[in-house]
## 1
Amino acid sequence: MLSGLYLWQQLRNDKSGLAGLSIVLIFFVLAVGVWAGLLGQDWSVASGARWQSPDANFWFGTNILGQDIFQRSIFSVQTAFEIGIVVSVFSTILGAFLGAIAGWYSNSWIDNAVLWLTGVLDSIPFYLFVAAVAYALQGKGWAMHIAMIATFWTTTGRLVRAEVMKLKSREFVLSAQAIGLPDLQILSRHLLPNTSHILLVQTSIAFVAAIKTEVILSFLGIGVQNGVSWGLMLAESTQEVLAGHFNNFLAASGMLFALLIGFNLLTDALQDAFDPNQAAL
Amino acid sequence: MQYLLQKMVHGLLLILGVTLVSFILMVWFGPDQTYTLIGKNATPEQIEDIGRQLGYDQPFALRYANYVGDLFTFNLGASNSSGEQVSSILRKTIPVTLALMIPGFVLGNLLGIALGLTAAQHRGRWADRLITGLSVTGMSVSFLVIIIVLQVLLSTPYGLNLFPVRGWQVGDPLSYFRYVTVPTLSLIFVTLGYNTRFYRAVFVEESGKDHIRTARAYGASSASILWKHVLKNSLVPITTRVMFSIPLVVISGSLLIESYFGIPGVGKVTFDAITNGDQPVLKAVVGLTAVAFVLIQVLTDFVYKLVDPRIT
């Protein structure tokens, strides 16, 4: 079972894992700052001239509309965390729930139905699925979130299903059954907590996938509808770079890269911590 | 035989599922097409008439059956925005997409296998660390960022200015090379990190197995171990990987690359359909690609059986 202390002991000796954790925490503080109304609040104000170079007022310069690129890239941290947290948490919960049910009732019709659903969702090319959802929801801002949650849970579901199938013949489960605990209680109290290592890693992976996907979707016009994000900044910058103005592009891609590599390093460290065999390979 | 039958039933159920999902999202829940087709000032008779044509007065099951029937007979209707038959649009654009995406997809996988093998062979040493580190870096860069950087570096006066900025005027091999290079490099860079990591893990696991240790103990050369045992035994995970990355890399990738570079393939058509809400195009592309991908999966299962009769 997952213990914070154990995790910390493992992470403490993993230099790149610690670096990843620090990067993620710094970005999280920035996101909280934006939420609290302390940072990046003037992201939509056109206070400067077009394409100003970086100076004391505009740390990263201004974009084509004269908006402060620094403010915009900081505000986008919040957008990224909003999307990342919503998508990763809900898709992991959905995957844990469906995967656990399927694994517990393996080879029953429920299991087959869940497997069929994962197969179907994995067979529809993802961006086309998002396009279809966005079309059905008529350009609502959360079409993107729904589409990602609806598809990202399948990997978690498969892994949890396999783990539950493995665990359900173990003694602690058999004895829980022997004393007559109801299935739901065994699942929620005894089995799901034992899949927490999978859930934590999958949450982290889904977070990365959600942020990367937002960039592409925003460029395609079916992502963030109101507000600003690194994806929208990059979409703006596609015209600017051809005219030789790189500030918008550098700010958005730099921040995006830093957060992604932080999360990727953290994910690797978590995986290694939970699976010493794999780390030794 | 039972295996093949089982896989075919499985494939049929998946086709049922993917068509159901695309039907529900785009036809059943999708926006009312009436006014798109006949304009704002229609008479009640016209509205009723077009509603009948679109099947709005029919029950769910019948409309779904019609959707599937149309999909399989390629009776896809006409695009709302250009009026052209969707089937003729697809005939024109699919070859462009294939010509655009295949080189990058193939090279991305081959390079991934080569780098994965190198890393696995030098496991734990600096070559392995370098390759693994670069993979994580590659995984952390957005597809869009890679495209923009390569475009600026290779196709603009701010870089080498060697290739066209965008477009697709392809007639002869030279012009094909000029237009396909930047998109191909983008595709390689975006997939290489993921591919390398995946293939490295496969090869590391394979080379840790008992029969490899035995072969080594019997004094087989490392080249023969590599080719005859490690690579050959990894064929199944490699095939699975290649097949399952088709929808993400080739189809989703073409959506982004073609809309960015203005290349007239299926991805660009789909992008325009998303922007204009062009339902006939969208439902045809989503439905057909999903069905095609299910067929590829079933085919892969058959190939496995040919390669390795033990598989059940």
## 2
Amino acid sequence: MERMPKWADVVLTPLISLALAFGISALVILAIGESPAEALKVMVEGALGSSYGWGFTLYYTTNFIFTGLAVMVAYHAGLFNIGGEGQAAMGGLGVALVLLAVPWPHWALALPAAMVGAAVFGALWALIPAWLQAKRGSHIVITTIMFNFIAAALLNYVLVNLLRPVGSMDPASARFANPTHLPKLTDMARALGFEWGKNTPANVSFFVAILSCLLVWLLIWRSRLGYEIRAFGKSERGAIYAGISPVRITVIAMLISGALAGMMAINNVMGEAQRLVLNAVEGAGFIGIAVALMGRNHPFGILLAALLFGFLYQGGGELALWTTIPRELIVVIQALVILFTGALDNMVRMPLERLFAALRRKGA
Amino acid sequence: MSVPSGTGSPSPAIELRGISKAFGPVQANRDIHLSVARGTIHGIIGENGAGKSTLMSILYGFYRPDSGDILIGGKPVAITDSQSAIRAGIGMVFQHFKLVQNFTVLENVILGAEDGGLLRPSLARARGELKRLASEYELQVDPDTLVEDLSVGHQQRVEILKALYRQADILILDEPTGVLTPAEADHLFRILRGLRDEGKTIILITHKLREIMEITDNVSVMRRGEMVASVRTAETSPSQLAELMVGRKVLLRVEKTPARPGAPVLEVRGLKLTDAAGVERLRGIDLDIRAGEILGIAGVAGNGQSQLLEILAGYPEPGAKLSGEVRLKGEVLPLSGPDAGARREAGIAHVPEDRQVEGLIMDFSAWENVAFGYQDAPEFNRGLLMDQPAIRRDAAGKMERYDVRPPNPELAARNFSGGNQQKIVVAREIERNPDLLLIGQPTRGVDIGAIEFIHRRIVELRDAGKAVLLVSVELDEIMALADRIAVMFDGRIMGERLPGEATTSDLGCLMAGIEPGTVMPGDMLPEDQPERAG
């Protein structure tokens, strides 16, 4: 009694949604007197046409993988974590504190420590909403949104009053010491003997993100904890019947979710900026929601969706650079993709389901 | 098909012609013809899943039929949503009431039928109308009480008032007595007779033969999506209807030898539960179950059986206050919870009353559900990860032994029929070989073949020297399976009987809360009641 084949569910539906989003974007570009074909060409070439473009696309992709995985883990527990933005910001604080507190001799030692710092800070930032949800029934959507604002304000205070080097006018931490700088993908390519993506921010965190996809997959679909998380997410009463504690699962799932969002900081803070600046997350926490939705809350889907949004970010930047299409329009395109692949998912899915049901009836 | 004619009225109140409705491959209604005469009470009877509710949902505009016509008062109507059903004069009282709990009765009655932007005139009009309806039909409810403070029986009256306020001529009631005490049910029947005598048409959906015989003028029988017969109630008999319902003679008898009870397994003393709202749900329960016997708990749903099962299974409802003592094989069990896992380790298995909400995760595959509740078991785990091949093997074995069809462990639980879902749960719990099996409504919504199978497994467990606590609202099931019968009413055990010596009317008295020996004319069983003309 499957409603439609799996390939239609996971491949066809997002592709049609995406086509619709691009179609409407094309109309908008036409309406302001530009050529959609030209715009697409600029975006594709700028994001995917050169190793330089890829270097940026993969950098953004890395951010979105972490925040997408964060949304996904919470989602499987039936929790909607909108707080990826704040958790990633706090993860940045964790990275900064770890890297500034210890004179690390080598990045290979600094990276695991920074990951722990990022994960712990992100997780702790998710803990309070989780605890409030589990014990007091305060809705986690509301509390995590509020914690985004609290994180931004807290970070502002910490940067201006505590971490700002004496004499600096910039609300940012001191630069991390040279040995902690992560190898860029371009450095790694050079070590292998070829030129790739010169002056691009993509770094070794990309591989950590890929590894995280695998680990999250193992967690959710292969481990007992994942089984309990999914059971709780499907039916709280069922979970209680099965001896699964709702409080425990709510807290643990949110801790993992917050840790994943926080881990994004090893890419943007440690890998790219190499110091903690204000608003370092730049909306990646929210993009993670769209990435998780579009990726069907599966790590592999999230990898692909993160790549798509990485492309949109980088391609959009190129569009603003090389055409007269205003920067705001790129936000419109991104918004349309989120709207169609996330919010309006059922608009495509339901006619498709009906179509497949009709086809099956004819076939039977 | 014989179509009974009404009391003198030329065109029937409702006529269905060739209604069909399919959900995917499941044909819920197939070519249904039905004619309900004006001013009659028409019963529709059938087993769970026979398609009664689907048919009524079509009448009320929740579903569109794939084909067929609906005629109201002889004229074809298109019922596209509940608004158009109301305009056509149809009122519906659902099994699960659709009331706003923190609105007053009056506010609930006018909800969706307000006269204008301001509430005051509507409320005033509704107050007058309610007073009239109340005196006319014995539908007394205080209009200013919050619905959440009303008893179930009174909430049902509010639903009826809502329909009448919307000038319903045709009233459909879906399993209206399932949640009522016998006394409340009798009152409901008086109301319905009064409404009929005023010329209203009433459709009563039920699977209880007794109610059909008592109150309806005509009855239609559904079986597997088809309308198999429509007859005058006076010209039929319960056994004939039962045969029509199941398509063969009902034989709810279980082959079993007399019980040989051993040592006490479960001892419950003075168990009380006050829920979060401050209502005392259990008022001092004393129970003993020995090894090798089945204790059946009979009673109308909602008299504390669910709370008792939940406490014993280790998850009393949140916020409830508990007192008393529960011992398993002499060991005192802590009453604080929830910790269903600890109970499983102690040797208690539990087939919950609602398999779709508790017993199974409907989106999980069958094999994942076979580990449900036992996800910590060492044989299902290997290091940090679950041992999926082991669980799959275990599931395949259980599904084969319990004849679960289709025997495919990869299929999601929701794709199995009710009977096969229940077999998965029963297999999971019984094959753990527990010292005590708690089993609630083991055959609710389960087909006859699976009922026999599940009953045999329960008796086998008993014969293996285990204790079984069986809770069921089906008296036949209790009579067939139990070695001792305890009747629950209003949070108390009213009395205990042996199945051999208990009569249905004796148990019925206990279920209605009447101590044996006392005679209360107003609360007598309907069979003994003189006909009251309206």
## 3
Amino acid sequence: MTWTKAANMNVLAVFNQSLMRGIVACLLGLSVAALAADPIPDGNQSEVWKKVRQSYFEGRTIVEDVDGKVVALKAPKRAEDAATVPVQIKTGVNQSKDRFIQKLYLFIDANPSPVAAIFTFTPESGRADIDTRVRIEAYSHMRAVAEMNDGKLFMATHYIKAAGGCSAANGTLPDYANFQPKLKFKVDPNVEKDQPTLAQLMINHPNASPLVKDQVTHLFQPAYYVRTINVSYAGKQIMTADVDFSISENPNFRFYFTPSGEGELRAEVVDTKDVKVESFVKITPTAGKT
Amino acid sequence: MKKFSQFAAVILACTPGFVVASEARFNLKEIAPGIFVHQGQMVAERTPANMGDQANIGFIVGEKCVATLDAGGSMKVGLLLREAIKKTTPKPICYVINSHVHPDHMFGNPAFKADNVTFIGHERLAKGAAARSNNYTNSLKRDLGDVAEGSELTPPTKTVKAGETLDLDLGGRILKIQAWPVGHTDNDISVFDEQTQTLWLSDLLFIDHVPAMDGSIPGWLKVIADLKKIPAKMVIPGHGPVTAPWPSAIEPEERYLAKVADGVRKALKDKQTIQEAIEGVAWDEKDKWQQFEQFHRRTVTATYAELEWEE
């Protein structure tokens, strides 16, 4: 024990000891005050990441994309609402038949389920960008890993200070027993042919985390979340997502598609009760600049 | 010597004497005949020293018995409130009225269990308390350590349905308990004392402290429009000064909430992302409120997530 630490212990011993008990009992297992002063830990030393990396990318090289040439991850450094943390994955690849990002993994090391989402894309996606909102349970490294069609892997990392997002109850608590999920698309009305076009898929769903404990029944709230999302345009696959309760209540995704002619932008969403909902929007692209 | 003082501090902190000794810190003001309000501390952090005493709480004395207005941010604060009541009147405590689920208002409930009181709350209070208790308790323990001991979100034993009013008779004094639709939270109630025309709003009204939104801003604005119809002479906010004139006291809050809602609607119309809205909406309000940074981003985030479903 260093001298400074020892002196500190004497002054605050009474409360520190009691605080420590509270902290140990606490789900986070981390002292917010201590972490605030600490430098960002080395992401490569994360035990969770070592395991995840082993199981998903065994033995393969992952290029750390510090310049964001292939993949960049944007999120706040500190999030006040850990249950709704905006995350943007920006990619630098024009999706073409020869070269495209075919998979995008979003990992949150400190979450109870560190694999927050796995997206797949096609050349028809135009761009493999994704914009969504996640829950963060404890201070954590987040990672976006892009897998190219030739199998090369690129990773962007971001460290975020937020806590309690998975164990916090949703703000308002409607009765979910007979819940019917709803979908809503938002697409700019002026769509140009063969141009990557931004679309937004909104899913009205509690996406309930099983980490919320009911103190009367002493039971954890049953997990009830969106499991898969499948988006197509004119019958061709654009984007799929395998997700869980790391995604915030009312899951929300912004993504791109490239219309080569008239068609339906269609989404199919399945949740953990095997409830399937579908929605589509008709798109008539204009001739555009080319 | 140090060891001894630590030991002494532990003993002090764990005996009822500690509570009595710190009573000097428990301010209390009779704002109208028989209505006593304690002003919580306007602090960003809960500490063992402040015991989580952040909210305005109090009590109303009738001819027959006493009703508390909330119970404070920890069992310790609840005990201080109980002591204050006992010093003020020999009448028994019959009701603990919980304005809503937030920890700074409700954790003191267990201090009144021995009085055999009826706990009054919104019909959605029990559900909200059960779902949040684990998280709230863990974070209270993290902030207060042993000082958090005994704190609980004791659920209501008598509830009021949203949109309805319950009359509580304290003996020669009727309190009108009104349960509101989703606004500041989904379980807010207000208390109107007919005798003095005093309206206890708790966190439906924030003064100086930025409104902390945990429900719906459009809902809250509707509630405010209805609240303004109540012919009160004086109101008691959940944070800030213990009394304020009515309805002018709610104008800054209404302005702030409307500005956030309008700003978020504009951001949505301009196809801004949630992050852009968080960084751009209503930051000109920053210098007008305390604890702004701590709550504003969260409020914009939640409002964006709600309003994007409008249309």
## 4
Amino acid sequence: MRNDRREAFAFLAAAVAAAAAMPSALARPATSDDVAASSAPDRSPQARAQGLRRHFPNVPLRTHDGRDVRFYDDLVKGKKVLINFTYTNCTQTCPRTTENLRRVQEILGDRIGRDIFIVSLSLDPDRDTPETLRMYAAHNEARPGWTFATGTRSDIDQIRRRLGLYDNPDITQHMGVLTFGNESAGKWAATAALDKPENIVFNLLRRVDRFTFVPWPEARPVSAPSRESERS
Amino acid sequence: MLSRREMLRRGVYGPALLSVAGLAAQEGVEEPLFAPSPAIAPFTRRLRIPRPYVPLNRPGAPAQQHAKAESIFQQAIAEGRFLHREVPPDWAQADYYEVVMKPGLQQVYPGLPPTFFWGFDGHWPGPTFLFRRERTAVVRFVIDPAIDEPCATHYHGAHTPPDSDGVPMNSYTCNDELSPMSPRGSRTFVFPNDNPFAATLWYHDHGQDVTAHNVYMGLAGFALLRPNAADLANPDAPENRLPSGYGRYDIPMVFQDRLFDANAQLVYDPFEHDGILGDRMCVNGVIQPYLPVARRKYRFRWLNGSNARQYEFFLSTGDRFYVIGSDGGLLPKCAEVSSVRIAPAERYEVVIDFSKYPVGSKVYLQNCLVQTGGRGPEEINFSSCTPFVEFRVERDEGPDQSMTLGNGTILAPEIQDYIDTYLTPQGGEPVRLLNFMRGNGAWQVNGRFFDRNRVDVSERLNTRSIWRLVNESGGWEHPIHIHDEEFRLVSRNGAPPRPYERGLKDVFIVGEEQSLDVAAYWTGEKNVGQYVFHCHNLEHEDMAMMGIFDVQP
């Protein structure tokens, strides 16, 4: 309707006049001060990743395969990774989560250990020694690329807090959430650890690989995910 | 007032820091992740009014813009956006727009570097769409390559066919080419604007996994769906007699709490799953602005554009004001109130009469609802109010011609008729029980996680149903948003809703242990297919606190 356009133009004309009268009132073209201060923050993937490092405390951990590692440097940095919290004596959600992760591992095939990694951190360091975790990993047929790790209770709790997964000091009530991301790209998300493995993989790959449009609703064909080399 | 030591012990650093620091404080020492925002003198910057978009194909526009409008039409056909009609409409019967999501810089803090953000056409908030009811708008939303996340634009509150509704599952990126006629990184959306009633709607990004981040970075703006000529035919219609003039006496205000770092850059935590809070109160992208006003009535369109924070707004004088509209249109009857509770994504239209204040007065709009975590507000505390806007009563303009308002003034009998006819339970309507739950820290509806291939509720056109929204998630409040239609809140725990909740709404704040009955009526032969409902705490939404409903003829 004409009235809208008249109103819009009247508004814009008034805005221009107001800007002339009171420069600070409106967004304005850059001045030399802006240029000097002009630090559109670095939005490169490296900068994004750097900005998120505080969420991955570089605490010491011991893995199920006997390595001494640092959480960020060795298990997260530069990787596409799925992180969950578990403990071997957990009788409620953890067995189902671990079973889900087995299926995720199966679906992802040899991408696990090549460019996608799973890190399962124990909430029960007193009982979950590296030896216990080694048996647990073997029992769950964890491939290389799926690491179970243990550390001090307070270090593990610090990781949980930094990942937004500290809900309750009682480990039997821990959050069944999978955090996953592409660390180099600085892109992260989270999903229910007890969701269907196919859904977990679908969501994971759309976040850690390049996101592409997929029409919805449409029955999603169930198929093996493309190798990374097919996605340029 | 808490001592600094006590605040440290309790982890109270101001709203931004509870979830990490507060919980940590229960266990002992942990440095908070984020420092409070830099200080800033309030009420030294004027409220900005977002500029309106103008259609590309308006009369008198340059030929190049008309040509672009036609290319948008061709793109919409190629993308199948007109599937719900047999023949594409006469392209000239719609308004065409092209909007680019791109970075921008805003001088938020004087003396600090400009704040980097993401904005529609590089503005925060986005420019305002001035739409007319029943006038189709076709918009090409383009993702600038500097925007490195998936995007999807949702026109919130609009009655839109499913494939133009902007859901996360239909997100695209700057690299996608959706059809041979689609410029890279762009998608068209067709908005018939055929809501039954004019309303204060809005639009915002809804990208897969990143809605909370993208909206927080600035991708949100107003879309005012205004009455058309037929709606305004009666000179006594309230829409002809309320304060008017976009940016003059009819003023949009979007409230967003934000956290800034020492260089005035926005701070966002993608691991804060409870819900992000900020400690600087922005209105239209300005921290605690002032607004000069005349001694007369003003119409404000309030939008809570925060990710998680709820507000309860009072005037500093304690005076009452008038609520005249809610999410979906004018209230059938004006409600005179001393405060309004507004949850994320809700809109309320209010009229404030400044004629009672002498020139030189300052009146503050303030929030007195305390909230320290994303889970929900705590309580109203009048010694803890935060002022948002300073109204400076600075001039007389003579008698105000807008209509006189009082408690119960009839504003929209046609909306009351619609509610009586379609949104009043008659007995026998199907009841859709939607129990929002937390399963081991992940969100569920009726005990199930979201599945993009599973329909949770089936509805039929031209039928009524009741959606029973239940919150047994234990210690959380959830603003539940349902796409496609406007609805009515029938009861909250069996009791009537607040007077200003008695109109049309599309967002329903479900508190702890609450059960809300929401009346629904499904309309429109173009509005057939799958839609979503979800929590509008955006961090919850990104964690798939969502379900799918399907509307069939």
